[in-house]
Amino acid sequence: MKLLEGKTAIIFGVANKRSIAWAIAQTLHNAGARLALTYQGERIEENVRELAGTLKDPIILPCDVTKDYEIEQVFQDLSHSFEKLDILVHCVAFARKEELERDFHHTTREGFRIALDVSAYSLPAITKRALPLMEKKGGSVFALTYLGGYLVVPHYNVMGVAKAALETSIRYLAYELGESKIRVNGISAGPVNTLAARGITGFTKMLDVYRERSPLKRNISAAEVADTGLFLASDLSKGITGEIIYVDAGYHITGT
Ligand code: NAP
Predict the structure, then answer these.
(1) pLDDT at position 62, please?
(2) What percent of the chain has pLDDT over 90?
(3) Which residues are catalytic?
(4) What is the pLDDT of residue 194?
(5) Any residues with CB less than 8 A from the CB of 75 and at least 6 apart, and which?
(6) Closest C-alpha to 68, from 131, 134, 122
(7) Nearest 5 degrees, angle CA 6-CA 9-CA 14?
(8) How far is the CA of 20 from the centre of ligand 1 (A)?
(9) Please, are residues 187 and 228 in contact by the beta-carbon 8 Å criterion?
């Protein structure tokens, strides 16, 4: 029997075939889970529908995570197809380009608000709406984060502040939802060449630095992040909650 046979999952944040969310979708699907994917805006819809064509019986729903009514609609629609929800995956982040280009101390109030809203508040916002479907049997929630939420990484700027808020949200949610047997964790991934990553100034240099300095002397792949996602989604991790797992070839343990 497959690891996620009979399980259902919703994944937020597939934009294209390079998205970490898509790697996670494929891995959870191969492990037997039935999937719902969300996309933001018509621009992305065609991409996501084309990718989802390779999955068995997927559910595709629009969702801009800054809009409460769209989140409500997602879970209302989902409740018609899924009796219960076992897995919720958060792979959503956004900061305005200019906030990543200038120094952090020039971050605007609006730029700060947008980055925190999309990249951090969205986790409690979607988790809250998922509860009626998740509380029935318990489940696993996990979100994607980055080292820049804990240490200073040049150019990561307000996204680092948003990831710090996301990681703290993971711990508060884990604390509150434990009694409902819902586990909440994070995966802190090393750099992977995606649409969002390319918005970070000096991203290519970052890949070089990780290759040179990480203990494993290489970059990681989206598929490796997805494998850890499978672990967190499955009962193999049933004793773990409130944790951030680094999938970064060990880079985070190094000093100078
Ligand atoms: P990606 O493919 O560009 O995914 C980011 C997703 O966020 C896109 O699907 C994007 O949709 C979505 N998004 C942005 N604003 C949204 C909104 N208001 N409502 C709903 N969705 C919205 O890039 P990725 O690298 O795979 O990112 C996935 C996650 O991994 C993010 O949390 C990112 O911070 C994290 N991460 C990435 C790396 C890396 O190096 N790539 C490393 C560590 C952590 P649109 O394209 O339509 O805006």
Answers:
(1) 96
(2) 93
(3) 146, 156
(4) 95
(5) 129, 130, 132, 133
(6) 122
(7) 140
(8) 8
(9) yes
Residue 131 Cα to ligand 1 midpoint, Å, equals 23
Closest residue CA from atom 20 of ligand 1: 64
Residue to substitute in 94, 159, 200 for testing ligand 1 pocket (most ligand atoms within 8 angstroms of CB): 94
**Distances 255 to 211, 213, 252 between C-alpha atoms, Å:** 15, 10, 8
Q: Is the pTM of this model over 0.90?
A: yes
The secondary structure of 30-41 as a DSSP string is HTT-EEEEEE-S
Q: How far is the CA of 90 from the centre of ligand 1 (A)?
A: 9
pLDDT recorded at residue 42: 85
Question: Strand, helix or coil at 167?
Answer: helix
Crossing angle of helices 122-134 and 68-81, rounded to 10° = 30
Q: Is 171 left (phi over 0), alpha (psi -120 to 50) or beta?
A: alpha
Q: For position 152, what pLDDT does the model report?
A: 96
Helix (H, G, I), strand (E, B) or coil at 242: coil
Residue ranges of domains in the chain, CATH in brackets? 8-247 (3.40.50.720)
Using alpha carbons, select from 21, 12, 144 the residue that is nearest to residue 88.
Answer: 12
Model confidence pLDDT, tens digit, residues 181-211: 999 999 999 999 999 998 888 899 999 999 9
In angstroms, the CA 166 to CA 231 distance is: 20
Amino acid identity of residue 95, one-letter, is: A
